[in-house]
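Late entry, written up from scratch paper. The run itself happened at the end of the previous shift, but nothing got recorded in the book at the time, so transcribing now.
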Amino acid sequence: MKYVIGNWKSNQNLTESLIWLENMISLAPRIPLDMQVILCLPFTDIASFNQKLSETNYPIFTGAQNVSHLAPGKHTGEINSHMLRELVNYCLVGHSERRRDFDETCDDVAQKAKSLLENSITPIVCIDLPYLDQQMKSLFNYDVDVSRCFFVYEPLAAIGTGKPVNPTDANHVAHQIDFLIDGNTPILYGGSVTSDNSLSFVSQNQIDGLLVGTDSLEPTLFAAIINSLK
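Output as recorded:
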């Protein structure tokens, strides 16, 4: 199975998200049976986007971009795993922008992953080399079943820069992740992914898919990435 995951980040209001879906359906990129497309939306878009998806039967799964590390309770403004479990199948955790802008720690990420799994949501754990070993240690310390997670190598230097890492180097890091988790779980690459370079990453023997940022916002670009991998 190959995976294409879109991450809209802090973009697209509800109206814009539904227009995006209409345009995507009109482009009609054929999603093969051995490919899963996941779209990680802002919290405000998820419920209505899901409703529209159910009406169209378009084969996209939805995910969230973040979740609280706290349990349900008196935590004003927090969105926890229990609240998301009826809305999404997947959730990003530990994205480099969250670590950089909100000082998220490896322990925070591990707690989020554990909570998601307890609520039947697959964590998509984002990792860069500077904290690779520490993140894995935290996951094991919190008894997170890493075999039920996805992992993404997303080097901060490549995020939004238009300068992806060399696919061979990305594959080497994916092998490191695979060795540390000692399991059969998807490992993806994220960082300045486009339709021009997508196949060069997915054709590597240890990379199972892509996390797409900027090019997931424009249906024509996202469809082109899907088409490039068929």
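The chain has a mean pLDDT of 96.
(Scratch paper discarded after transcription.)
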